[in-house]
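Q: What changes when heme C is included in the input?
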Amino acid sequence: MQVKVVIGTIAFMLTMIVLGYAALREPERLEHFTGAREGRTIETGANIYFNNCATCHGMEAKAEECYDAAGNSITCQGLPLNNYFLVCGDAPARLEQTRFEGTKEQFVERTIAAGRSGTVMPPWSSTYGGPMRDDQVKNVAAFVLNFENEELCAQEPVSFPWPDSVDDFLSMDMSEFTAVSGDAENGAALYQSYGCNSCHGDVAEAGSNQIGPWLGDIATVGATRVEGQTALQYVYHSILYPNDFIAPDCAAGPCAGPPSAMAQDLAFRMSASPQDMVDILAYLVGN
Ligand code: HEC
Ligand code: HEC
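A: The predicted holo structure follows.
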C-alpha cells in the first residue's frame, strides 16, 4: 500500500516535471518554429530571386554581375536592391524620392507585384497580369527585405560629391568610388540601362525620341544651350539638375517645365558608380 503511494507520488512529480519543462520550453519552441518558417520563406524567395530577378538586379542584388540565360555577362538593367537606401531603417530614402507613402515592406512588395510602368521592371503578381501567386511575391519581397543587416546598415554610404564643373569631375580620383573602367561603348549600354533611350530614343535615328529631345546632335547643339557652358558641361549638368534649364524642344508641349519631365534620380543612381557618368558623357559628347 505504502509502496503504491510512493510510486504514485513519484510518478505524479515526474509528470509535473515533464509538463513543467515542456511549458517552460514552449515559447522557445514557438520562436524556433516561427524562425524556421521565416527561414523557409526567405529561402523560397531566394530561389524565386535567382530564377527571375538576378538577370536585371544582379547575383548579389547590387545591380552588378548580371548574366543572360546562356551565362553570358550582360549589363544589369535593374536598380540595386541590396542597397542601404532601399532596405535600411524604417523610412529609407527611396520611399521619399519616389513620393511613396507607406512602409518599406509595402514599397518593396507593391513594386514587385505591380512593376514600374514606363520601365523594364515588369509586374510579377497575377493580379497585375504577372506570372506569380501573391505568396510567391511575398516570399521574394521577404528575401529582398532580408538584405537589411548590420553590415549593410551600420553607416550611410557617402553619395558621390558631384562637383559643379565637368572638368573638375573628369579630373577627380575616382578609385575610391568605382571598380570598373569604361568607355563610349559601355556608355551606349548605360544609355539603355538607365532608360535614357526610352525617353530620348536612339541617338543613331533622328525622330526616334519620345518624351525628351533627340540627343544624336547634342555634342554640337549642347554647346549653344546655356551661355558659357560647353556641350560636355551642359550634358553633365542636365543629368544632375534636370530642372535648371529646359531644352528648347520642350518649350511647349508635353515636356514643358520646370519641373523637367526628365528622370530626377539619375545623380543618385549614378552615385553608386560615377564611372557611369564618365561613360555616358563619352558616348553622347566624347571626352
Ligand atoms: C527586365 C529587368 C528586370 C527584372 C527581370 C526585374 N526587375 Fe526589378 N527593376 C527593374 C528596373 C529597371 C527597376 C527600376 C525602375 C525605375 O527606374 O524606377 C526595378 C525596380 C525594382 C524594385 C524597386 C527598387 C527601387 O529602389 O525603387 C524592386 C524592389 C525590384 N525591382 C524587385 C524585383 C524583383 C524581386 C524581381 C524578380 C521577381 C525583379 N525586380 C525583376 C528591372 C527588372
Ligand atoms: C523620363 C524621361 C527621361 C529620361 C529617363 C531621361 N531624360 Fe533626359 N530629358 C527628358 C526631357 C523631357 C528633357 C527636356 C526637358 C529638360 O531640358 O529638362 C530632357 C533633357 C535632357 C538633356 C538636354 C537636352 C537638350 O536638347 O537640351 C540631356 C542632355 C539629357 N536629357 C540627357 C539624359 C540622359 C543622359 C539620360 C539617361 C542617363 C536621360 N536624359 C534620361 C526626359 C528624360
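Observations recorded in class: The first helix runs from residue 2 to 52.
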